[in-house]
Design brief:
The chain is mostly beta strands and 196 residues long. It is built from 3 helices and 12 strands; from the N terminus they run E-E-E-E-E-E-E-E-E-H-E-H-E-H-E.
């Protein structure tokens, strides 16, 4: 015979949800999940390890659950622990937590033959920008791996060596690297870059 679990007599923390990894400066949500008798009340604190926490009053819904969301943002890379604590009249009843790894800013390989017009825009948007001329673009997967995206600014298709073109295609198609190609009618002529 299946046994029904004993009903909860008071609210309890089921867990904390948070993304495993975010980028520095990117907002993310940390959620505390609470179970309890419908209509019961609880005070839940979400506490980062090194910042002031926030306390929320919750009411358990008819389905026996409630959640509290707290938007967070970290600017320094590292791993950070967020703890949720459920308070009652007897002080802290329980606590659970989750870790979030904050990665440094996205790194962009910016390739341009002339003036690097978009470089300052990318930098001000929080990207780490590495500038190269077309001749200095890597030809191996390992050399392209540190970059989250490539920005090709006003570079004609015939500027690439076959090894560079192959490496760039693998970077985008096989590793999921980002690619933005911008240019003029001259650099983006229809006979140069092939669609697909």
């Amino acid at each position: 015979l299946p046994l029904d679990p004993a009903p909860l007599l008071s609210p309890r923390l089921r867990g904390v949800r948070a993304p495993e990894e975010v980028r520095a400066g990117e907002p993310f949500i940390v959620s505390a999940i609470i179970d309890g008798p419908p209509g019961s009340r609880a005070r839940v604190s979400i506490l980062p390890e090194d910042q002031p926490g926030m306390t929320h009053d919750v009411v358990i819904s008819e389905d026996g659950t409630a959640s509290v969301d707290s938007e967070r943002r970290r600017v320094d890379p590292g791993t950070f622990f967020f703890r949720a604590a459920l308070e009652n009249t007897d002080d802290v009843q329980s606590s659970v937590g989750a870790a979030v790894t904050v990665a440094g800013p996205s790194t962009v390989l910016y390739v341009s033959s002339g003036s690097a017009i978009l470089s300052s825009v990318l930098t001000s948007a929080g990207f780490r920008v590495i500038q190269r001329t077309p001749a200095a673009v890597p030809t191996t997967d390992a050399a392209l791996a540190p970059f989250d995206a490539l920005v090709v600014d006003d570079v004609a298709a015939d500027s690439w060596t076959p090894a560079q073109a192959t490496a760039l295609a693998r970077y985008v198609e096989q590793t999921g690297g980002g690619l933005l190609v911008a240019g003029s009618a001259t650099s983006l002529e229809s006979s140069g870059y092939q669609a697909g």
